[in-house]
Amino acid sequence: MLQTRLILSTTSALRLRTLPCLREERRFRKRVAQPLLPPPITVNPDQYSAVTEGGAGGSTSSYFPPLSAFRTSQTDPAKLDKSHLGRFYTVDNEFYKGVMNPIQCYPPEFRQNCSTFGEVCVMIRKPFVDIKSCIEASDMKKPVIRYIIYGPPGSGKTMTMCCLAHYGFVQEYILVNVPWAPLWTRFNKEIVQSPTRPGFFDHTINAVTWLTHFKIQNAKLLTQLDLKTQKRYEWSKREETSEGSNLLDIVEHGIARPAHASECIYALLSDLKSLSSNQKCKTMVLIDGINALYYECIKIKRPDRTLVPPNMITAFEAFKEAIKPDWSGGVVVSTVDKLAGQNEIRESDLPRYLLTKDGWEHFDPFIPVRVENYTSQEVQTTIDYFLDRKWLQHPQAGSEFGRIELEYLSTRNPLTLMKLCNFR
Prior knowledge:
The protein starts with a helix and ends with a helix. By secondary structure, it is α/β, with parallel strands linked by helices. Among the domains are: 126-370, no CATH class; 387-421, no CATH class. Strand 5 and strand 6 form a beta hairpin. Helix 8 packs antiparallel against helix 9, helix 10 (261-277) packs parallel to helix 11 and helix 15 crosses helix 16. The protein has a 5-stranded parallel β-sheet, with helices on both faces. It has 16 helices and 11 strands. Residues 1-22 and 27-67 have low confidence and may be disordered.
């Protein structure tokens, strides 16, 4: 008993002796954990010259540039060129909310920022300007030119597609826009056997959603052009769409009858190819994450629980027919993305790897367009925009040290920079 008391008293004494040491260690760790920020940089406004719309002036190493250095007053995407590279242009709310479906077409981080800032601003980058210049220089009487946008995740492939959709809408292209193809493979709500194609399977709810999206984007233009169907379509023994009917009749029938929605997509895209080849309209096909259409869908199974191959899905075959170079009077732009593929197919972001053998043979030939991460100038422009919107609240965020830290931590990746600035 006495030995136990001695041991307890000795242990208590050791604890009392080590308490001051622990307190000092905690204080030291707290001091070390605090960031060592440099003193604020004083900026002389006189060293910056005015910036005109044609290009940027003043010192290239300057921080806190004037408003026009990171924003352009040009809102028409058809008039944007290389002189606007690296600057933000404003997208009107009529297109953002009325034509495009923000929930499907834009990344969630971008939508959150637009809601917070009260405006929709997109940076003008080189891939968009290059593709736009090629479209303007191409001959619409020749077979369609196909472009594949690729790059690392978060580099801006989807935003480039959104800029091209805005350009196509302004230039009166009929938009065949598939916002994110993996939604058809991962979040399919209902799969049924095709009533018209033996062995094929149809998306019902997804197809109705896409037809509604197509109608919202193109209803005004289709009404003006008054396009007609090119042949007779028989949906069932009692339902048909006669030749020469309004093209919107196919869309309306697919929305009203979900069982025929996938077949209506096939008929709609087939007629649009014929009408574009006859120069009655211009069509722009935009498919984000198209490599998902060439993988086996692990969530789409037959009644005997075997997987359905992608070439036995009606909607997938309709979209693949739309990107074939057997028609003219339009353009095809697609993206390939690691995130659109399966988990075991994410080692490279190159089209040959992501499209697999079938997709590569189906697309060849095409023009590859790589979307890189931000340049140093684009990083500074983005930081200037966030500072202008009062999104960056840290007192050192606009200093030279703060800018270098943000550029280093984000590795110049647009998505990483956007997420990083949400916590500053």
